[in-house]
Structure formats: structure tokens, C-alpha cells
Design goal:
Elements (H helix, E strand, L loop, with lengths): L1 H22 L26 H28 L12 E5 L9 E5 L9 E6 L5 E7 L15 E5 L19 E7 L6 E6 L7 E6 L6 E2 L2 E2 L11 E8 L5 E13 L23
Antiparallel strand pairs: 1-12, 2-5, 3-4, 4-12, 5-11, 6-8, 6-12, 7-11, 9-10
InterPro entries: Galactose-bd-like_sf, NADH-UbQ_OxRdtase-assoc_prot30, NDUFAF1
Organism: Rhynchophorus ferrugineus
Main location: mitochondrion
């Protein structure tokens, strides 16, 4: 009898382990592993001392606790949006005051000693975001830089309270919507995951038209954007001719268009064996 009970317990434990293994899931890998997400670019800012870090931690503790309480409240009381009406834009970033500029990081090739371009993100006379500056094709004479001329604005990394990294879940949407007023130049839009004229215009770009790139290189192995793992968004000014540029931005939002059924706009092809596929 004791042996029978022991066998039943052992079999039950084995069955429990099997069930656990069956329901265990891992995140799908959408791209290759990168040991250095910055691509070799180092942060040259001086690292604060231990005392300064302690002071900064205590100063931000009240704000972090308030964010944590809001997250808990939203989890229990939040009413998630279940219906996405056509033509309705959910604004993610809107430029309306100076605090909205704190959500963006401004960089250029000059910051990394790879060129002489300069740019800034300010508020225009209309109170909207103004991404402007001057592109320079001049290259530094170091024998290392082959091409120059880019300026970029990028949103800060999505985080929860206490600086925990998180994602922006854009799964329900299939359109990126922007209200902008440009200068005739072309701009590169980048959706980061783990891509005008004198009048205001509403620009809608399907997510299916974005393609996979890394460090400025288009990848052979393409796939649709994993919209549930978006970490940031950026706009880059980079063209083949130098000069001033100006892009005024009112808002950047998301929309679900049921008439757009395309999942991915680009065809894939099978490479012969022995050819690298990165």
C-alpha cells in the first residue's frame, strides 16, 4: 500500500513537471543578439560620486513611489480600451510645453566627433515641437569616418517606476500618425524594438511598411515590427546635401484602420546555403 501511494505521488509530481514544461513559454527572438546596444558609442559624461548618487536617489524617491502607486491603481481599477474606432488617433507624444521636450534626446554626428552637423529641439512660435539645425557633409580628417551628416531626436527609454525597463505595446494599432509641417526634406522614422511642405499635414504610415535595420544597415532577414516590444521612437534628418532643416511637430500618435489588412509589405527570399543571413 505504501509503495502504491509512493508511485502515485511520484507519477503526480512527474505529471506536474510535464504540465509546467508544456505551458512554459519564452519570448520570440525577432533579431540577432547584440552584446553592445550602443554599437561602440560610449557615454562620456562624468559618473556621479557615491554621495551624489545617494542624494539623487532620495530626491527622486517620492516621485518613484507616486508612479508605483499609479501603476497599482491602474492595474486594479484601469479600464482598458477594447474598441479602436477608425479615424480616432491615440496621441502618444504631443508637443505643447517645455516639459514635453524632456521626453526626447537630441544627438548629431558632432556629438560623437563624426561630423559637424548641429541641431536642437525647441518650441516654435506656435508652441509646437521644432526639430531644426544644419546638416554638414564635411567629414573629420581622421581617416575613420567615411560619411557624415545626420541629426536625430529620440524618445527616452520606456520605463516604469524605480527605473524598471518596460515596453510600449502598440499591438492593437496598424498606423503611425503624425501631424507635422516640414521644409521639403525627407526624414527617416525609426521604431526601436528589443524605422513635408510649408503647411500642416496629417501623415499616416502603416507599420507594415517599416523594414528591419540595425546601426544604419538594412538586414537581409526581414520581419514585421513586434509592436508589443516597442522601446522608443526617433526621427532622423540625413540627406545627401548639406544645409539647414526644420521639421515642426504637433503630435505623434497611433491609429487602428480596419481597412488596412497588409501585415508586411516586403517579400522575402531564400538565400543559397553558405551565404550569411543576418
Amino acid at each position: 500500500m505504501a509503495r502504491l501511494v509512493k508511485n502515485i505521488v511520484s507519477n503526480s509530481f512527474l505529471l506536474l513537471n510535464i504540465n509546467k514544461r508544456c505551458i512554459s513559454t519564452t519570448n520570440k527572438v525577432f533579431t540577432f543578439h547584440e552584446s553592445d546596444e550602443k554599437g561602440g558609442y560610449k557615454d562620456t559624461r562624468p559618473y556621479p560620486s557615491f554621495t551624489e548618487r545617494i542624494k539623487m536617489g532620495f530626491n527622486g524617491l517620492k516621485t518613484e513611489i507616486a508612479m508605483w502607486k499609479e501603476e497599482i491603481r491602474d492595474q486594479f481599477e484601469g479600464d482598458p480600451v477594447m474598441v479602436f474606432r477608425p479615424g480616432e488617433v491615440d496621441v502618444v507624444w504631443r508637443f505643447q510645453d517645455k516639459s514635453s521636450l524632456d521626453q526626447w534626446i537630441v544627438t548629431s554626428d558632432q556629438d560623437h566627433k563624426e561630423g559637424f552637423s548641429s541641431c536642437s529641439l525647441t518650441l516654435s512660435n506656435c508652441g509646437k515641437g521644432l526639430f531644426s539645425g544644419e546638416l554638414s557633409m564635411r567629414k573629420p580628417r581622421d581617416g575613420r569616418v567615411k560619411r557624415a551628416g545626420y541629426c536625430n531626436i529620440k524618445t527616452i527609454r520606456a520605463r516604469k517606476s524605480f527605473k524598471r525597463e518596460t515596453y510600449l505595446d502598440w499591438t492593437p494599432y496598424n498606423m503611425l500618425v503624425m501631424k507635422i509641417r516640414g521644409d521639403g526634406r525627407s526624414y527617416l522614422l525609426n521604431v526601436h524594438t528589443k524605422g513635408g511642405g510649408p503647411y500642416w499635414q496629417i501623415v499616416k504610415i502603416p507599420f507594415s511598411r517599416f523594414f528591419l535595420g540595425s546601426k544604419g544597415r538594412i538586414q537581409d532577414c526581414q520581419c514585421a515590427i513586434p509592436l508589443q516590444q516597442v522601446v522608443s521612437f526617433s526621427i532622423t534628418a540625413t540627406e545627401r546635401y548639406a544645409g539647414e532643416f526644420s521639421l515642426e511637430i504637433d503630435y505623434i500618435g497611433l491609429e487602428h484602420d480596419p481597412s488596412h489588412t497588409e501585415e508586411f509589405a516586403y517579400e522575402m527570399y531564400a538565400l543559397p546555403k553558405g551565404v550569411a543571413n543576418t
